[in-house]
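hey so i finally got around to running both of the ones u sent me last week. sorry it took forever, my laptop kept dying halfway thru and i had to restart like 3 times lol. anyway pasting them below in the order u listed, first the sequence line then the structure token line for each. didnt double check formatting much so if smth looks off just lmk and ill redo it

first one:
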Amino acid sequence: MNFARDVVDAADPSRLALVALSGDGGRREIAFGEVAERSARLAGSLASRGVGRGDVVMTLIGNRPEWVYAMLACWRIGAVALPCTEQLRPADLRARMDKVEPRAVVAAGANVELALEAGFEGELLVPEGRSVDEAEPAPPVELGPEDPALIVFTSGTSGEPKPIRHGARYLEGQRVQAEHWYGARPGELCWCTAASGWSLSARNAFVAAWIRGAAALLHDARFDPEERLDAIERERVNVLCMSPTEYRAIAKRGGLRRLPELRHAVAAGEPLNPEVVLAWQEEVGVGVHDGFGQTETGHLTGMPIGPAVRPGSMGRPLPGFRAWIDGGELVVDPATVPTFFVDGPRDRPWRTGDRVREDEDGYLWFEGRTDDVIISAGYRIGPFEVESALVSHPAVAEAAAVAAPDEIRGQVVRAVVVLRRGREPSDALAAELQDHVKAATAPYKYPRVVDFASELPKTPSGKIRRAKLRAEGVERSEIVPE
């Protein structure tokens, strides 16, 4: 198997593959013929620099066609694509590089300096460069189902983010969710708004749409509720995939209205509030189908297509996937999940770490994490990273990061900080700590709530009692101004 050959090369060269919208208002329509040629030449450029089967290639490109070309180029020659969001800081990238040792980095021109600041010393390519355009196209290689094709890092719930490897079958395995949850149809235009570098983007930005014969929309711009609605309407988007935070923000601030061409909508990344589902159903005319998946497993559940949407439910296990509740935790049989990661255990059930209940009709309802992950605006944030950044500030003695409720984002990061002797709490110091975290790690991880305490609640063994801190956060609603 080879996704680049079997899906891209095999498509009608004149058929629409991508609609690309840039932040400056530009618009391009790109056919499969151009996608095949551009990605094959980029693959040739990588191969000429010694990149081959099994080598890791990191990408630092936004939601632009060049990112798609880079991903396809890797799969074409059997290299392992490692997509990274542009929001990562040098320390984040360095940590990833140390774990997977990329042979090459394909970066947009604006991100070249970011890769260099992270200390990368290998092959560095700019996909728009002349050397790429003039390269000899590389032929596709034959890949086995378990041959690594993709690495996506987890969010780091109990430590640093971990690299998760997926085999070539992960791409082919997207057919199940693409048909039964994502819902793409031939000739339609699909838009998954997740930033490149995230698990959802890796499977739904273009893979799921193309497998089903649809085209994909790419939008390389910051989120704006009204602009998002305008783009959906103007481009006549048929299938929409957004984070619950985006659905919430648009419902609250964007002025929902009828979108006649929008046939189907899905959400993933965190639980979607029932009232938001109802608002979209009543005002837009489309029910949002919630779903659930993990970096390790790919998509696992989804609100079925056909029956009425049940607001607040994450749907049912995808067809053929065996999942059940054990002690309140969702558990799956890896042998039934074609998108399960290659290094995962296949001889025993996979415990997701998510507390879920099942109703009498087999629909699943998310209740919370069994660990301490913070899910904010669809981003899964591990407290360890935030705490490490805070403690690196000279004023901080100890810190804990927990989730606090937020009307728009679902949750935000709340930091409880114990200061060093001689330092006093203040709004100015809280803002300084926020800026410090933004500089030390990806900006979306910074604490939007900063509280100061004389000590942290701990168990007898010295572990932080996060449940107590989370309970305090529910009662506290004041957000420190940005």
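and the second one:
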Amino acid sequence: MIAPNRQGEVWVFAEQEDGSLHDVVLELCGKARQLADTLGVNVGAVLPGHQVRGLAGKLIAQGADRVYLVEDSRLAHFQTIPYARVLCTLIEKYRPQIVLYGATPLGRDLAPRVASAMQAGMTADCTDLQISDVTDPKTKELHKNLLLQIRPAFGGNIIATIVNYDRWPQMATVREGVMPLLPPNPSRNGEIIEEKVEIDESLLALRLVERHIEPRKVNLKAARVIVAGGGGVGSKEDFRLIYELAGVIGGAVGASRAAVDSGFIGKEHQIGQTGTTVRPALYIAAGISGAVQHRAGMEESAKIIAINTDPNAPIFSVAHYGIVGDLKKVIPMMIKALRERPR
């Protein structure tokens, strides 16, 4: 266990694959910058890999003051144990007060292993991070400038705020898309610190024999317009209405978990707490009741249009425009109007 270090940096694990940083890393750099400015400390990014030095400038432009670069050919492809050794070694040496990871499959694998080794707490799937003073309700002791790790709990029915005042560094994984991507500043100056971490061959328990990458079929995060269908669409066949409307307005197709679980559409289209978080210019929700788990993934859309037969559906609480009606009647009318509009 590492004792609290009030002057420690705010770190981001710079997850990369094939020389490209994951989008969530750039989002976290902006959030880390905000947290660090509140605390009056620097932002550090830990960048392990092979031939990845060229990524350091992008991290600095996004808000990092220091990039801790660990170059090793054995780090070319992610393996949990050697990557954890890198993180643990640097944490013990530099003693950051906060370490953030993306809640990606890789981050969800790495973060708890590092937290266990450091005997530190770790909160998974955070949707917000803040700095605040906290009073222990039992001892009444005031702890200044703690990280508030905020995430949905109990199936999204409550929002929990978790703090860690005695076992540091404070660690959290953050879902992609929940933090806004701040614009980079190419004129920022930063420091690249090259580190060597001993990686014993015994840590390399796996050997990569063959690698297969499944291409992404849909990119909901980049979509300016999304038409999403829910369980209320009724069937896989009726989901063609969602596709047709999306095609007419040049949008991507999304879905609620209910639609995915019912087999109407693939999981890569799922939006919400257990899917993708999106912020399009226009979000059309058809046949989606709007449970808190779904709203968590789309409620920051610039404009939301909801179509539902139930006037009391929760989706209307976040919608800018609501249409109470049967989507099987409403959507064909929308498609007809859009096709007949003057070009």
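quick thing i noticed on the 2nd:
The mean pLDDT is 91.
anyway thats it, ttyl
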